[in-house]
């Protein structure tokens, strides 16, 4: 663990029992269960993992299983931090693994998108995109401006430094697979829990959780996506279970490497067309008490259409609502939020509008190795998930865990939803009437003579 926000690692550990992820655990256990955890101060981005000599010896003498999941996921980062953390961090972890006296298995958390330059990927380590020592040398000898300038030539077909360095990191693991057993698990887009510890549990605002949170607030009204494409989502509890099961299975051998796709695209594919007709019904059946406007979400098929519509349905309302927040003594955040989304679209476009198929026969075979008891305790079978039902659960999880609104607030939230609907209708009437007046003035017609304007304006607005 790292010290964070002025708290040392022992203070951070003391906060663990209060995290909602442990609610279910604490129904059958006391807080004493957390005494099993022994924190050590470290950082994968530092030499020797930032470990003291005493802590390193503690690990070398006592650890049997290593799960390496630390990484920087910032798509905007240049090569320096991503090489330092994702690549060299993995190399440092593998060096520690070599020193551990009784290592049973090393589990490496990668990403299915390390091979995002392919539209179909299999469970194997693909050839390195560049010579690893050359990349490390570039980072050590060049300044930031020079690194940014040569970045496109270094990345080649990789969309960003994250997928590039995570790809190279897989080879660091592969290089040690003849010394001790290793396994690589590649999740796709990780989303809220399906079953454990609670259905819908999440702590992440990335992906569907983030934009459904914004939609429920009434501030995200358009979403750019290719709704007919497969979106490869995988619940977080499936990922955690697969890390454990993959490690257990690999530890049966003395060495070797197995790669697993923790994915849904080729086994139980999800497309947004499944949810398109139900998403707004869901938003109003389980509304937020903290909503600032009447929720209504529509999908748009291209980035330019999203940008045009965002000007009218995101930025103009954001300016108005931020002004109201200022008048009420609050902090204006909506315009900045939409501005950040706007700025991020370019680097996310590839992931928004492309479709991948991540084949997972190794994962399916791994599932078959579990007996009935273990299959229940460590479920890794995605084939039974019902996506529409799951997304209702996800939305309720966003409501409970990200917006901190308990089920008891639903009656008040539904009353507010009705009030926001009335306000939304009045707002639309006012806008259409104002535009009708402008049309009449510009054309020299009376309001009666330009009666064709309101339905035309409303029709055009519906296309935004």
Overall description:
By secondary structure, this protein is of the alpha/beta class. Helices cover 50% and strands 8% of the residues. It has 18 helices and 10 strands. The strands form 4 sheets. It has a 4-stranded parallel sheet with strand order 1-2-4-8, with helices on both faces. A two-stranded parallel sheet has the order 3-10. β1, α4 (79-99) and β2 form a beta-alpha-beta unit. The radius of gyration is 25 Å and the shape is globular. The two termini are 47 Å apart. The model has no long low-confidence stretch (mean pLDDT 94).
Question: Topology, pairings included?
Answer:
Layout lengths: L8 H6 L10 H4 L24 H10 L2 E4 L10 H21 L5 E5 L10 E2 L10 H10 L2 H12 L5 H14 L7 E6 L1 E3 L16 H10 L4 E3 L8 E3 H15 L6 E6 L10 H4 L2 H7 L12 E3 L2 H25 L6 H20 L3 E2 L2 H8 L3 H6 L9 H16 L7 H34 L9 H10 L2
Parallel strand pairs: 1-2, 2-4, 3-10, 4-8, 5-7, 6-9
